[in-house]
Design a protein that fits this description.
It is built from 4 helices and 6 strands; from the N terminus they run H-H-H-H-E-E-E-E-E-E. With 207 residues, the chain is an alpha+beta fold. The strands form 2 sheets. The chain has a 3-stranded antiparallel beta sheet. A hairpin with a 2-residue loop joins strand 4 (191-193) and strand 5. Helix 3 (61-119) packs antiparallel against helix 4 (129-149). The longest helix has 59 residues, at 61-119. It is elongated and about 165 Å long. 9% of the residues are buried.
């Protein structure tokens, strides 16, 4: 009786173990199948990262329009400032030329007087005659240097072709030795500052 009970117990135990083994095999297969399905359905980590990067790099149309508008406004502002700077520089140069022309124009009669004084022949017997002429000549040289520093230059006249833009003819003469419309004598020097005429040359012209 006891051996029969033992045999039944052993058979039951073996049955439970077989059932447990069978259940464990099915569970492992199910888990393996589920893992396989999950692997096939989910994107690899690298693919997911690339997808996120692509989505982040996609441009926002509204933002792109705003950036383009800001760039255009900046370029326009820079162009306007450059034009303002150029206008300001031209205005400053015009003011400078006006000031120089007015100053030199007022000072030229003094130079004319000094030039005439230097051209007057002094008595040869005077011991100071040479010193006076040298002093006047030195003053005239210094005046010419000052004019050059201010950007003022003498207008070429003697021997040049008459140009009404820079010459003022006060006398016309017949002179076969000179070509027509040639300046044969300068009564008063003319000066210019850049393109601005400070004073026209007063000249005599051969017809």
């Amino acid at each position: 009786m006891k051996r029969r009970h033992d045999r039944e117990d052993i058979e039951n135990e073996l049955g439970r173990k077989a059932a447990a083994a069978a259940e464990g095999e099915v569970t492992e297969r199910d888990l393996a199948a589920e893992d396989g399905a999950g692997s096939e359905g989910a994107a690899p980590p690298a693919a997911e990262e690339a997808s996120r990067a692509s989505a982040a790099g996609a441009g926002d149309p509204a933002k792109d329009r705003l950036i383009a508008e800001l760039k255009d406004a900046l370029l326009r502002q820079m162009a306007e400032f450059d034009n303002f700077r150029r206008r300001t520089e031209k205005e400053k140069e015009r003011i400078r030329l006006d000031a120089v022309s007015d100053l030199v124009g007022a000072f030229l009669p003094v130079l004319d007087s000094l030039g005439r004084a230097a051209a007057v022949p002094l008595p040869s017997g005077s011991p100071d005659a040479a010193a006076v002429k040298e002093g006047l000549a030195q003053v005239l040289r210094q005046a010419d240097e000052a004019l050059v520093q201010l950007g003022v230059e003498e207008i070429p006249a003697l021997g040049a072709t008459f140009d009404p833009a820079v010459h003022h003819a006060v006398l016309h003469v017949e002179d076969d030795a000179e070509g027509a419309e040639t300046v044969v004598e300068v009564y008063q020097k003319g000066y210019r500052c850049g393109e601005r005429i400070v004073r026209h040359s007063m000249v005599k012209v051969a017809n």
